[in-house]
């Protein structure tokens, strides 16, 4: 990967972070950047972060072993392996939080977040759809495909399904 | 153990779990978990709930030995 690509990626990450700040301020009821959680949710999220951390550490350890053994033979860029690990850990965090009612904070505007979620899903799905439509090419032995967008789409689908399952569980045990 | 006294006190004031949660500054799921007995609140949250429902700690949270 060239220096220019690396710099472009770093700039993209910074732009993404600035974008996230704007999203949180817009999507939270009190326009605060930080989402507030009550004591029970904080406790659950603590466990969720722990499980996500162990997931990432285990993943990187396995990745390291596979790399040393020359078993990482997929024709994709190296950074995709690490990005995938981060997303898997993020998925563990989110799924655990959703299932234990600790995903949404007390100051989150749910309707706005849902709209943002759908928008981000579309933004990530479009490059994947266009790439499939244009056909998948190889460049220097590497598949030229928006894998990061695909991984994000899969991640968002998993979170969406988990939320639907949680909603069903909650509806069936509503206060009487 | 389920906290039926809390549930009864809330129902007595015609409050939903969401409304009580809003008064106490917590999520609806937390109130639900407390009522189901799935979560033991801290003393601060117990006091918040008691204030919101106009009850004492003994009335809502002391274990009924009988």
Give a concise summary.
The complex is a heterodimer of chains A (176) and B (66). Chain A is 73% helix and 3% strand.
**Largest interface, chains and sizes:** A-B, 12 and 16 residues
Q: Report helical residue fraction of chain A.
A: over 70%
Which of globular, elongated, flat, extended, rod-shaped describes the shape of chain B? globular
Helix amount of chain B, in percent?
55-70%
Low-confidence stretches of chain A: none
- State the total count of DSSP E strands of chain B: 0
By oligomeric state, this entry counts as: heterodimer
Poorly predicted ranges of chain B:
none
Secondary-structure-based class of chain A equals mainly alpha
Main β sheet profile of chain A: 2 strands, antiparallel
Spell the H/E element sequence of chain B. Answer: HHHHH
Search tags:
heterodimer, A: 176 residues, mainly alpha, two-stranded antiparallel ribbon, 5 helices, 2 strands, B: 66 residues
How would you explain this protein's 3D organization?
The complex is a heterodimer of chains A (176) and B (66). Chain A has 176 residues and is mainly α. Chain A is globular, with a radius of gyration of 19 Å. Chain B is mainly α and 66 residues long. Chain B is globular. The mean pLDDT of chain B is 92. At the A-B interface, helix 2 of A face helix 3 of B.
